[in-house]
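Step 1: inspect the first sequence and its tokens.
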Amino acid sequence: MTDAQEHMVLLAMAYHADPRGDNVFPHQSTIATMARCSVRTVGRRLAAMEARGVIVRGDQRLVEHLGRGHRPVVWRLALERRRPSDNLSPP
């Protein structure tokens, strides 16, 4: 994690994910509202997380029913990259 805004963007994405971290497809404006930042900031943070492999593109067929101009990107949280020290359970 690089900064607080990226952390908030990732938390907003996790809120929309299924239990395996898949099928994340809120619009960037929804993420921006939840993370309390601009849509441009969301776009930059998503690009940075994708470049580092924190998130990966998911199954885009999930949004085929939406019009071309209204399809959000479907993401998957790369939970397999989680380090053992990232376990949030109490000691």
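Step 2: inspect the second sequence and its tokens, then contrast the two.
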Amino acid sequence: MMRLVLATQNPNKVREFSELLESRVDLVALPPGLPKAPETGDTFLDNARQKAMFYAAHVGGFVVADDSGLVVPALDGEPGVFSARYAGEGADDRANNEKLIRALRAKGLRRAEARFVCALVVASERESVIEVEAWVDGHVHDEPRGENGFGYDPLFSPEGEARRFAEMSAEEKHRFSHRARAARMLLARLSSAGQATGLGWRGEPLS
């Protein structure tokens, strides 16, 4: 089984991506004590690439990093690459959601077209070897619903669904979500990339 370091120290995120990758990749979290990677890119792919290469230099192997967020055209693309810190550095999900609601209402909008985007990059410290990006279109609303999920899930409903992500089970959300789509794209490319580049911590082939 191929082994990769996931650019996070959050065990829940490791578990989620392991599920999305169908447990075909042995994902491990970053070791503690590492500095925070820069996120100064203009796109999700830029930031994912920065994080993957930054942490690969620290762990001495291949790292997979994600950057994802919400894009609302009616708000000039906000929150975009600042999704996780929309209400400021260290802001929690509630603060970010409240700022988005205020921004919608300031435009006189009860709902607006939106897109959830996820970029995944596998890289060594020297180069990026796999880059994928996926998205799901839908709408954001000015009132939260549901208790599941995280981030902007209480405000976002995917195209063709009245329910918000936060009203769905994890299995239901995976049928639509940007992360699930990006993970499937990554999984499809891992085996051929591994054979071509020696990808895989300690060189294990994808089984």
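Step 3: confirm your contrast with the notes below.
The chain has a mean pLDDT of 90. The chain has one domain: 2-203.
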